[in-house]
Automatic annotation (TrEMBL):
Stated family: Belongs to the ABC-2 integral membrane protein family.
The keyword Cell membrane is annotated on this UniProt entry: yes
PANTHER family: NODULATION PROTEIN J
Keyword Metal-binding in record: no
All copies of domain ABC transmembrane type-2, residue ranges: 27-257
Main location: membrane
Signal peptide: none
Protein name: Transport permease protein
Coiled coil: none
Length: 260
């Protein structure tokens, strides 16, 4: 078989292993799946009446919940990879005729799969409780493409953190950082409701243009007043930048940690 064929086979095996591992940890697996539903109902029915501005709050909050759940899922990936390194399973894999790249690709692909499932739940529950995007098929495709790119970037970032953390406990703190950042963005309230110092941070961190691009593609307008095209360019720049830096960092860290 060719080198590419071996890479595909090894990666498929590693992806299957990571997904089976998720399924065999029902507490973490169902938490990741139930979290989007619980947060959706909480924000729409508990906080939505107070936060509603122009139109139903569910129309505003769906993009924010998608990135929030993506951050939580990426944190899970960092912990899983750090656990594998600490437990010695990665060394065992390296002693087998398995491509080293397949070990990382398996974690990232499994992360992408889990996060896309969580995204589908957010969209499904949102549609069930009244979210009504006013958009075309092409705009839907653009929004979904951006989601895939951003989740992929976060997954590689999580892989880099898992390799750098030195242990599952340190990697677990990454989850809280990624879950906190969407709160200081336009995920749940517009930035003009924030103090000036906090507003500056919220408007210039990576989650905000991602959220605003999705909001513009689905609902036809952004909460910042900027055009969807403007937000999309910034969102793509952040996503591609995070993906490139994280991929390079993760691959180099992995080679260094297994070079013995």
């Amino acid at each position: 078989m060719s080198s590419l064929t071996y890479d595909i086979v090894d990666s498929r095996i590693m992806v299957g292993r990571c997904l089976r591992r998720s399924w065999r940890d029902p507490e973490a697996f169902f938490t990741a799946l139930m979290l989007p539903i619980i947060l959706m109902l909480l924000f729409v029915y508990v906080f939505g009446g107070a936060l509603r501005d122009h139109g139903p709050y569910v129309d505003y909050v769906v993009p924010g919940l998608i990135v929030l759940c993506a951050g939580f899922g990426a944190g899970t990936t960092a912990v899983a990879l750090a656990t594998d390194l600490a437990g010695g399973i990665v060394d065992r894999f390296r002693s087998m005729p398995i491509r080293a790249s397949a070990i990382l690709l398996g974690q990232v692909a499994a992360s992408l799969t889990r996060n896309l499932l969580a995204t589908a739940l957010v969209i499904g529950v949102g549609l069930g409780i009244g979210w009504r995007p006013t958009t075309s098929v092409w705009r839907w495709a653009g929004a979904l493409g951006l989601i895939v790119l951003f989740i992929l970037a976060l997954s590689w970032l999580a892989a880099a953190v898992g390799l750098l953390a030195g242990g599952p406990e340190a990697a677990n703190s990454f989850t809280f950082v990624l879950m906190f950042l969407p709160y200081v963005s336009t995920a749940f309230v517009p930035t003009d409701t924030m103090p000036s110092v906090l507003r500056g941070f919220a408007e210039n961190q990576p989650f905000t243009p991602i959220i605003e691009t999705m909001r513009g593609l689905w609902m036809g307008h952004t909460s910042t007043g900027a055009s969807t095209a403007h937000e999309a360019l910034i969102a793509l720049a952040w996503s591609v930048g995070i993906l490139a830096v994280s991929w390079l960092t993760a691959t180099r860290l992995f080679r260094r940690s297994t070079a013995h």
